[in-house]
Amino acid sequence: MDYIKKLSRFIIPYKKFGYLNIFFNVLYALFSTLAMVALMPMINVLFGETERLNVKPVYNGIREIKPYAEDYLNYFVTTTNDSEGPQRTLLYMIMLIISLFLLKNIFNYLALFFITFLRNGVLKDLRDSIYNKVLTLPISYYSEKKKGDIIARISGDVNEVKNSLLAVLELIVKEPLTIVFAIVTMFTISVKLTIFVFIFIPIAGLIISRIGKSLKKKSSRVQTEQGVFLSTLEETLSGLKVIKGFNSEAHFNKKFQDSTTRFYNFSNKLLNRQNLASPASEFLGIATIAALLWYGGSMVLIENSLSGGAFITYMALAYQILTPAKAISKASYKVKAGNAAADRVLEIIETPSVLEDKPNAKVKTNFNSALHLNNISFKYEDDLVLKNFTLQVPKGKSVALVGQSGSGKSTIANLVTRFYDVNEGSIQIDDDNIKDITKHSLRNLMGLVTQDSILFNDSIKNNILLGKENATDEEIIDALKIANAWEFVKDLPKGIETNIGDSGNKLSGGQKQRLSIARAVLKNPPIMILDEATSALDTESERLVQDALENMMKNRTSIVIAHRLSTIQNADQIVVMQKGEIAEQGTHAELIAKNGVYRKLVDMQSFE
């Protein structure tokens, strides 16, 4: 149960519900035992075994509570039999038993009622914490993790932890107390018989513990495999066009079925091990009851050292131990399964982010002079993508980065926006190192338009509002006009309220890109980063998007990463990159005149 300590910060806000659960579980355990003990006087009344007592007993303190209770009950039965008859006495005994059982079940309900708030509260907070961590972890983290596995952890694993929380409280409070109260009462009825029972308990416990020994490992394999097939499903939904286009349905079908088959086999082993707990503990309990019948029966019939009523009550108490014992064995399995799930959940929550803001990071709200990249080097894995790269982007100027694929252009965008940190050198806005600025304020100064138009399954309005949450409809329409997007949005059935489907798939590539530009326009940041914003478009869409980009870039500092050189000929400076280094730089005319790398790239695209 180590994970309970690790999850304590999620449990503490709901601790009052835990205390109330414990309180009512104590009452439940107490009244469970009292309800069974109440059987004894009823049986004694039925068989006329009640000791006659006509003098009301005197209470002499807590130490004498047991004989006082017995004497008072015998006095009550004797006087009631004499005054109202044995049938009325039996009715009173039955009413007492019904009342005790009613109270027992009321307390059980109240215990479950309060624990519900703790379990669901922890579930909510765990999911919120994981989702927040998903948002704050660097992008590099997700290049190594499968999305489906993370989805499995935030759904299935967290749910498993929630279920195990109830099992923990059953394991440490409800069921053990029920057993303790029952055993204490059994000792008061017959010490000799109770010692005989204890011979069987260690044997039963050893067998049950052997059954559950490997449960955590089996549960972990099930949860991991669930992550695998959810990842396959997520990849299938994302890449359905490619799968169908390459007739790869059979390949992906086999991949998914292989995973579900493993999940099937792991689940069978896990559930069969869990299912063994209940019948094993019940059989061991019945074996104990059988031994009790033989040994206790001889005490009643041969030794006459135990009354019939006391023996039947004792048997009821012994059988009552079976239910919580079975519950404890089941709960211990749930705890082990919850432990495995908690390990997977906590792995994400406790993953440190390499891009955390410094404790004294400053909030930067303006951009005054220039963006500086000072002798930076960077690598994703082993090989350097950028080597001693230096660049200055003055305020109000546009700088274009061109070069072949793999030359490091998009890496510049990732580093400037601090999706990754440089390995060497520094990036500064004005005189501030971006590592000394909060990420939130840094990205507030920047607008980003990527090659892939990332839109969400929502209305056009809500997609654009990501740029400025409190913008009016008029501001949204103005941004759409600057992005050359209003011309198609105004003709849609619901205008800006039109839902654009998953990833904006109801729109064409050019339309999606213009919405991405409108989102950046609405944000109105001082620095704009355009990462191959037109490379995936046809000629007509490119012209519309290019016009939109030029509208947006007026009097704005811009870093333009371009594959199509026709889109950057008006840039104030063009930087030609080769293998992470600057090959040459200058204006379009200057670079053409140099007749170097840039000229070759231009000629390859048949543009002069």
From TrEMBL:
GO terms for molecular function: ATP binding. It is a multi-pass membrane protein. Residues 371-604 form the ABC transporter domain. SUPFAM superfamilies: ABC transporter transmembrane region, P-loop containing nucleoside triphosphate hydrolases. InterPro entries: AAA+_ATPase, ABC1_TM_dom, ABC1_TM_sf, ABC_transporter-like_ATP-bd, ABC_transporter-like_CS, P-loop_NTPase, Type_1_exporter. The chain crosses the membrane at residues 20-43, 90-118. Its main location: membrane. Residues 22-337 form the ABC transmembrane type-1 domain. It is found in: Cell membrane. CDD domains: ABC_6TM_MsbA_like, ABCC_MsbA. Keywords: ATP-binding, Membrane, Nucleotide-binding, Transmembrane, Transmembrane helix. It holds the Pfam family ABC_tran. It comes from the Bacteria. The keyword Transmembrane helix applies. PANTHER family: ATP-BINDING CASSETTE SUB-FAMILY B MEMBER 10, MITOCHONDRIAL, ATP-DEPENDENT PERMEASE MDL1, MITOCHONDRIAL. This is ABC transporter ATP-binding protein. The lineage of its organism: Bacteria, Pseudomonadati, Bacteroidota, Flavobacteriia, Flavobacteriales.
